[in-house]
Design brief:
InterPro entries: L-lactate/malate_DH, Lactate/malate_DH_C, Lactate/malate_DH_N, Lactate_DH/Glyco_Ohase_4_C, Malate_DH_AS, Malate_DH_type1, NAD(P)-bd_dom_sf
Radius of gyration: 20 Å
Distance between the termini: 62 Å
GO cellular component, one term: mitochondrion
Structural class: alpha/beta
CATH topology of the largest domain: L-2-Hydroxyisocaproate Dehydrogenase, Chain A, domain 2
Catalytic activity: (S)-malate + NAD(+) = oxaloacetate + NADH + H(+)
Family: Belongs to the LDH/MDH superfamily. MDH type 1 family.
Order of helices and strands: HEHEHEHEHEHEHEEHHHEEEH
Number of domains: 2
Strand content: 15-25%
Number of helices: 11
CATH architecture of the largest domain: Alpha-Beta Complex
GO molecular function, one term: L-malate dehydrogenase (NAD+) activity
Helix content: 40-55%
Largest sheet: 6 strands, parallel
Bound molecules: 1,4-dihydronicotinamide adenine dinucleotide, oxaloacetate ion
Number of strands: 11
Length: about 325
């Protein structure tokens, strides 16, 4: 009886995964870059991905040829500048790491002038060629580039707030790794909640929700390390860019979670920066919190929940900065359509 049920389960899973796999085309825009290359490799290793479209203004065909030799079933194609329509057509997920990274001494906001128009133009192409895809924005400053992409989709009449995501997974990956270093725990079993946005003071780790109780200077140092983890990498790379490998892992994890949810898995929760009702009354239209994913993208946005007074102060500072970052993105998109 048990064996029969197991066999039926296996057949059902196979049948389900075959039909779900048919639709799983993933596009990476900026695939030739520091994040794009390892991200493409990780996606090539993911059996849920059936087709991988790698697009960049330079270098994507080479990355695609290289990835295509990896012995997994998915088909990999590289696309150059003129081919963005073909890269995007039928994509279920579009990851966007296109744009310039920071150098030491720069903030993420210093990237705005260059990356705002790159994200705007790629969002326009996605709105035209795959309006129903899940759009995953990695390009910084995420707090502003996500509102820009949302405005572009609104202007094209195809905005679905459930399918527009800022990728903040790396903040949770870092928060989880850093606490495991302090507490000598297994980082893989840590999942520290991080809310807010993706830059400095807008990154708010909620350690208390994991039952940890750091105090005083140790807590300050932990929070600062999570908020400025990106700077640690920028400094260490000494002008050669920012986090690429850990970001590729984080982006691949988020894409995997979306694919799992699209293929029917329940209870898939990831932190992500989305059009959120949580602080709209304070003029903050986008906010990262725990989000349950489903077949239509965002299934449920979890509230921030119970936090300490210390965390409330962090959140207040976050909301103030975030509001300005979001407004800046919206203003840019409206004035530079
Ligand atoms: N959300 C997050 O947690 C993180 C975000 N980032 C951001 O990701 C972005 C990319 O970083 P890297 O890969 O290190 O930079 P990179 O310079 O190594 O690669 C960027 C790639 O984008 C391509 N590109 C530029 N304009 C394009 C366009 N219009 N269409 C298609 N491709 C285009 C470039 O040719 C290049 O290959 C940066 O803005 C960085 O700040 C980086 C780490 C973490
Ligand atoms: O720090 C940067 O500029 C890149 C980034 O967003 C991160 O590593 O979190």
């Amino acid at each position: 009886m048990f064996a029969a049920r197991q066999a039926i389960g296996t057949i059902q899973r196979r049948a389900f995964s075959v039909s779900a796999r048919d639709a799983s085309k993933v596009a990476v825009l900026g695939a030739g870059g520091g994040i794009g290359q390892p991200l493409s490799l990780l996606l090539k290793l993911n059996p849920r991905v059936t087709e991988l479209a790698l697009y960049d203004v330079r270098g994507a065909p080479g990355v695609a040829a290289d990835c295509s030799h990896v012995n997994t079933k998915s088909v990999v194609k590289g696309y150059e500048q003129a081919d963005v329509a073909a890269a995007l057509k039928d994509s279920e997920i579009v990851l966007i790491p296109a744009g310039v990274p920071r150098k030491p001494g720069m903030t993420r906001d210093d990237l705005f002038n260059t990356n705002a128009s790159i994200v705007r133009d790629l969002a326009k192409a996605a709105a035209e060629h795959c309006p129903k895809a899940n759009i995953l924005i990695i390009s910084n400053p995420v707090n502003s580039t996500v509102p820009i992409a949302a405005e572009v989709f609104k202007a094209a009449g195809v905005y679905d707030p459930k399918r527009m995501f800022g990728v903040t997974t790396l903040d949770v990956v870092r928060a989880s790794r850093f606490i495991s270093q302090l507490k000598s725990t297994d980082p893989a079993s840590e999942n520290i909640v991080v809310v807010g946005g993706h830059s400095g003071a807008t990154i708010v780790p909620l350690l208390s929700q994991s039952g940890y109780n750091l105090e005083g200077e140790q807590l300050d140092a932990y929070v600062k390390r999570v908020q400025f983890g990106g700077d640690e990498v920028v400094q260490a790379k000494g002008g050669a860019g920012s986090a690429t490998l850990s970001m590729a892992m984080a982006g691949a994890r988020f894409a995997e979670s979306l694919l799992k949810a699209a293929q029917g898995e329940k209870g898939v929760i990831e932190p992500t920066f989305v059009d959120s009702p949580l602080y709209k009354d304070q003029g903050v239209d986008f906010f990262a919190s725990q989000v349950e994913l489903g077949p239509n993208g965002v299934e449920k946005i979890h509230p921030v929940g119970q936090i300490t007074d210390y965390e409330q102060k962090l959140l207040d500072a976050c909301l103030k900065d975030l509001k300005g970052n979001i407004e800046k993105g919206v203003k840019f998109a409206k004035e530079n359509p």
